[in-house]
Amino acid sequence: MNLISISIITPSYNSSLLISNTIKSVLAQTVTDWEMIIVDDCSSDNSVDVIQSFVDQDPRIKLIQLAENSGAAVARNTAIEAAKGRYIAFLDSDDTWLPNKLEKQVAFMQENNYPFTYAAYDKVNESDEVFGNVGVPSKVAYSDLLKSCSIGCLTAIYDTEYFGKVYMPLIRKRQDLGLWLKLLKKTKYAYGLNETLGLYKVRSDSISANKKSAALFTWRLYREVEQINLLKSIYYFSHYAVRGLLRTKYPGVARALGILK
Fold first, then answer.
1. CATH number where 175 lies
2. Residue 16: is it exposed, middle or buried by C-beta count within 10 angstroms (0-12/13-18/19+)?
3. Is residue 228 part of a domain?
4. Checking CA distances to 139, which of 69, 120, 124, 188 falls within 20 to 30 Å?
C-alpha cells in the first residue's frame, strides 16, 4: 500500500490512566504516514505529562493544550483545524485500534472511492475483556443515522479532498453524530467495513453511559442543530428510542430485526 497522510483526532481529559494504551495502538499501526493530534481539555491529573512523554519520543504525536475546559467538540475541532492529513480519523483517549485499522480502512476507501467510512468494533470492559461486538451495515444515509447512529466514533474516517474540513457542532454530547450528519448532507452514503478494527472501552463514568442524557442531547440535535420540525423529530426519536431499548433489553429481538449485528 502506498504511503498515505492521515490525521488522528484525539481529545483528552483526565485520561492519564488510559491514554498510553491509546497512543501505543496508534504507534503499532502498519501504516506509518500519520500524525496524532491530542488536544488536552485542561486535565487536572497528569495526562499532559503522560502525553508529553510520547511527544518527546515521536514527532508524529502532537499535543495542544486548551486554555480552559471546553468539552470534546471544541477539543476535536481544535485538532481538525490543526490537521494536515488528507484523511481525518477519530480515536478517543480510552479507545484503541487494531494494528491494521488504518491500512485496511483507507485501502477500502481508496479502492472503492468512498469519502466517508466506518467499521465494526469490539466492546471491552474496564479490565479490557471483550464482552460484545458491534457489527455495522454496509452503508447508511442521512435518514438512517437520524433513526440510529451505527457509526462508532473510533472507526470513522472522512476524506478532506472530497469534503474539505468539516467540524463538529458545538454541543456537549452527540457532537460526533452531528458531524456524521453534516457529512451525509454532502454525500449520499457512508460505507461500512464489517470487520472489527477497534476496541471501544465501556466505562461506568463515561459520558455515553448516561443514556437519559444522551437521549436528551439527541433530541436537541434534531431540533436545534438539524432544525428538523417537531413531527419529523418525534418520528426519528421514536425509532432511536425503540432501537436503543431493543439493543439494551432484548438483543435477541434486535438481532432478528437486523438492528443489532
1. 3.90.550.10
2. middle
3. no
4. 124
CA-to-CA distance for 91 and 57, rounded, in angstroms?
A: 20
The position carrying cell 512523554 is 53
In 3D space, the residue among 170, 121, 186 whose CA is nearest the CA of residue 150 turns out to be: 121
Q: Is residue 136 part of a domain?
A: yes
pLDDT tens track of the chain, all 261 residues? 344 699 999 999 999 999 999 999 999 999 999 999 999 999 999 999 999 999 999 999 999 999 999 999 999 999 999 999 999 999 999 999 999 999 999 999 999 999 999 999 999 998 889 998 899 999 999 999 999 889 999 999 999 999 999 999 998 888 999 999 999 999 999 999 999 999 999 876 554 446 777 888 888 888 898 889 999 989 988 888 876 655 555 444 444 444 444
Say how many domains are in the chain: 1
Q: Which domain holds residue 171?
A: 6-203
> Measured between alpha carbons, how far is residue 82 from residues 35, 134, 237 in Å?
11, 31, 35
Q: What is the pTM of this model?
A: 0.89
Assess if residue 185 is contained within a domain. yes
Name, in order, each residue with C-beta under 8 angstroms of 149's C-beta and a sequence gap of 6 or more: 176, 177, 180
